[in-house]
Amino acid sequence: MIPGVSRAPLTVAALVMFFMLPVPRVFAADALPADKQLAGADLNGADLAGADLRGAVLTGASLVGANLRGAQLQGADLRESYLREVDARDANFTGANLGGADLTRANLSGARLDGALLLRATLYGAALKGASLANAAVAGANLVRAHLEGANLEGALLAGSDLTQAFLAGANLKNADLGAPGLGHPAPRGARLVGADLEDAELAGANLVSVNFRDAVLAGAGFEGARLGDADLTWARAKGARFDGAAMSWVRGYGADFRDARFPEADLTYAQLVGARLSGADFHGANLSGANLEQADLSGADLTGADLDGVSVRAARHVPAQFQQGGSK
Length: 329
Known about the structure:
There is one protein chain. The protein is mostly loops. It contains 2 helices and no strands. The protein has helices spanning about 10-20, 320-325. The longest helix has 8 residues, at about 10-20. The protein is elongated and about 80 Å long.
């Protein structure tokens, strides 16, 4: 004992309180209950790599920072669970229900989420590189700054999701549904992809009605046969993008970069392309009736067979001869 310093006696009550303190536990896969009933369980930091959790009930469970790498979670119920910063690389969530789950900054690279339900889930900053979400329901989800490079989202439902500044380079979104489904739907607005990177992404046949692509990178992306009515492509960078046969009536592309883009047979009626860069663009057979191309750059644009009825090209640069001949087809 230090001279002059008194020490209070350790009472029985203090000893009891000390031994009643919770002991931190790290669960392992072989310590899980056989019936897989884990609703509300505290599994923070658990090592569940390769665990068989098929059909497990994990509603409201907390798995913050857990290791789920290669785990089998097919058909598992993970509604409202906490999966922040989990390592779920190569895990299998096929058909799992992750509605309302918090997957902030989770690592799901290479994971399988085909047919999974992620309605209103939070995936802010999550890593989903090369993951498969084919036919998954991701409506109303938060995917802000999520990494989805090379991910497979074919046929996925993403209406109402926020993908602001998300990374989707090379992703497959063929026949995906990102468009506004209408009033009365749980996610009544189109997806938000402001500033997102979709370079070389494939969106053929996708529903993109009323989707917000403002300032997005769409260079080399494929939108063949997609529905883009009322979509916002203001300031989008879509050089070399392919819009063959796309439905784009009332699309907004103010100041967008569509150099060398393809629009053959596309429906661009009443499109607002004021100040757009359209040099070298292919509008062969497209319907541009009522479109606004004021102040646009049309140098080298191909308008062969296009419907130019009522098109406005006031103050546009390098206006093709078709307009000088009366604006007819």
